[in-house]
Structures are given as structure tokens and as C-alpha cells.
């Protein structure tokens, strides 16, 4: 849903990409920085029950990680550094980043464990369904309610509200669990329709 907006944001971030390139940051390095930031966000979530202000820190660091996820692609395209391995590396780190953040929230007891696991599974499967579909030659960008950008924003908003009312993060995870798995079903149905067209 936010993919179209993401493209507009990418166009405005060219200056940041140029600055990052000038100091020697490659797309893979930016991807790695984004992953490290996700690890820091996870650490903040784990410690948040004892120090609630860490929820705000986790939010800021999580959004910074998402920013890196956008910036690495802009650098790659702007400076002709797009590679097959770079796309693979970025995708793998994104999946690990998602997993470690959800796991941290579950471990910290900030959400119901079952809903947390459902949200985690849905998050991974949203990306997996896209990868499988595109391997079959079906474009999947902007298909689905909750792509990674939407999921990050929902989690960020829930984390900010949780600073004032802690159960909000648990409710945010429930929303993510529902939307991410609906996205999986939506993509599965979309792939079914597209494949059916090819066989007609």
C-alpha cells in the first residue's frame, strides 16, 4: 500500500544517497547498518518492561533501520551498484531484522506469545510469497495490505502509544498478525489469478 509513496520518498532521498556514497557507504554496508539498528531496537524492546522510555528509543532506532532499508536501494540505483547478491543480501538481512524484533517483543512479554508468533510467521511469509511469485515471473510490488513499510509504521505507532499505555504494543502485534496473514492470503489469491490467466 505504501509502495507508491515509498517511490516518491526515494526520489527525495537522492541527496542523502549522494552524501552516503561520498563517505564510502555501499548498498551492502547500509543494509548491514540497518540490520545492526534492528538488533539495537530489539535490545531496547527486551529491556523496555523495566525502563519504559526505551520503547521510544526502540521506535526511533527501528525507523532508522527502515530508513536504511530504503537508502540502500537508492544508492544502488543511483550509482549503478545494483547486483543480484546485493538484493539477496538485503532481503536476508531484512528477514533476520524482522525476526529479531518480533522475538524481542515476545521475549519481553510485551505481547501475547501466540499472537507474537502468528505475527512473526505472517511477516516472514509476506516476503516469502513475494519471492516465490516473482520467481514465477509475477510482479508483486504493492500487492497486499501490509508490506514491510506498513508493518514498520504500525509497530512504531503501537510502540509510541505503549509508552503511555503498555498494552497498546500487544494490540499492535495482534493487528500485525491479522494484517500480515491477510496479506499472505491476498497474495496467494493474486498469484492464483495471474497463473490462471497464463494457462487460458
Structural commentary:
The chain has helices at residues 3-12, 14-22, 27-47, 54-78, 84-107, 113-135, 148-164, 167-199. With 200 residues, the chain is an all-alpha fold. It has one domain: CDP-alcohol phosphotransferase transmembrane (TM) domain (Four Helix Bundle (Hemerythrin (Met), subunit A)). Helix 2 (14-22) crosses helix 4 (54-78) and helix 3 (27-47) runs parallel beside helix 5. It is globular.
What key phrases describe this protein's structure?
single chain, 200 residues, mainly alpha, Four Helix Bundle (Hemerythrin (Met), subunit A), 8 helices, 81% helix
Largest sheet, described in full? none
Number of helices: 8
Rounded radius of gyration (Å): 17 Å
Question: Quick one: CATH class?
Answer: Mainly Alpha
N- to C-terminal distance: 29 Å
Unreliable residue runs: none
CATH superfamily: CDP-alcohol phosphotransferase transmembrane (TM) domain
Structural class: mainly alpha
Count of separate structural domains: 1
Helix content: over 70%
CATH architecture: Up-down Bundle
CATH topology: Four Helix Bundle (Hemerythrin (Met), subunit A)
Percent strand: under 5%
Amino acid at each position: 500500500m505504501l509502495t507508491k509513496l515509498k517511490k516518491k520518498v526515494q526520489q527525495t532521498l537522492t541527496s542523502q544517497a549522494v552524501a552516503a556514497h561520498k563517505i564510502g557507504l555501499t548498498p551492502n554496508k547500509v543494509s548491514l547498518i540497518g540490520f545492526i539498528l534492528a538488533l539495537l531496537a530489539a535490545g531496547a524492546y527486551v529491556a523496555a518492561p523495566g525502563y519504559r522510555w526505551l520503547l521510544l528509543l526502540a521506535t526511533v532506532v527501528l525507523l532508522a533501520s527502515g530508513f536504511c532499508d530504503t537508502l540502500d536501494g537508492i544508492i544502488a540505483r543511483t550509482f549503478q551498484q545494483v547486483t543480484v547478491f546485493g538484493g539477496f543480501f538485503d532481503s536476508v538481512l531484512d528477514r533476520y531484522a524482522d525476526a529479531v524484533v518480533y522475538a524481542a517483543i515476545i521475549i519481553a512479554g510485551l505481547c501475547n506469545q501466540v499472537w507474537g508468533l502468528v505475527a512473526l510467521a505472517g511477516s516472514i511469509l509476506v516476503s516469502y510469497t513475494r519471492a516465490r511469485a516473482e520467481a514465477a515471473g509475477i510482479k508483486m510490488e504493492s500487492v497486499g495490505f501490509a508490506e514491510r513499510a506498513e508493518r514498520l509504521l504500525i509497530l512504531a505507532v503501537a510502540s509510541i502509544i505503549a509508552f503511555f499505555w503498555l498494552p497498546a504494543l500487544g494490540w499492535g502485534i495482534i493487528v500485525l498478525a491479522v494484517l500480515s496473514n491477510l496479506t499472505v492470503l491476498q497474495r496467494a489469491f493474486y498469484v492464483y489469478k495471474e497463473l490462471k490467466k497464463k494457462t487460458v
